[in-house]
């Protein structure tokens, strides 16, 4: 078991309803096109597949997909959408769980590598990706850039969403490199709010590149979004692609 926090049944059951924007065609279209191109006609493995926001439509588009998911509750929601025969899911953590076969693509979306709360576990996640990849296969990670430049001296919180139904802000432990995402969400029509929070280990792009090198992967590409826009000093996130060298035979 890793240090990742487990999603509860209640959180899993409301996840899709609270992430409708991330499931929109505007978001998923470029994501699916990007991943399909990198899969190159082979099999794809999604680490932290969740409720299948990306994995299910990617499979329905014709890419064979398997998944690894720590939360049985999240996997149960996915299973309502698609059968095990079409999208098999192994229950376990993405740093150590091994599934049968090899893949031309392993991917992690929507900041999920940050669910691993130690550097060692994130390194093992890269090694696990390399273990599953065919020579020439790619590992893809979508991860936000830590917004630390928005922290004035003495302040530890940065808001990321302020709307009529949701208030979200992150607090930072700069020593441990951990952030806590706080959510206050309007709960029904009664005027009350539900409070949730989750811990994440943030990592810089250069740190991920070093993790990739430890795992025997080479950086191939880094862009600012799924549409291929350039990654710049003002980018709020990055999509990074690392490749397993052709000469690397067998498993890492």
Automatic annotation (TrEMBL):
<dbReference type="InterPro" id="IPR041698">
    <property type="entry name" value="Methyltransf_25"/>
</dbReference>
<protein>
    <submittedName>
        <fullName>Class I SAM-dependent DNA methyltransferase</fullName>
    </submittedName>
</protein>
<feature type="domain" description="Methyltransferase">
    <location>
        <begin position="45"/>
        <end position="137"/>
    </location>
</feature>
<dbReference type="GO" id="GO:0008168">
    <property type="term" value="F:methyltransferase activity"/>
</dbReference>
<dbReference type="InterPro" id="IPR029063">
    <property type="entry name" value="SAM-dependent_MTases_sf"/>
</dbReference>
<keyword id="KW-0489">Methyltransferase</keyword>
<dbReference type="GO" id="GO:0032259">
    <property type="term" value="P:methylation"/>
</dbReference>
<dbReference type="Pfam" id="PF13649">
    <property type="entry name" value="Methyltransf_25"/>
</dbReference>
<keyword id="KW-0808">Transferase</keyword>
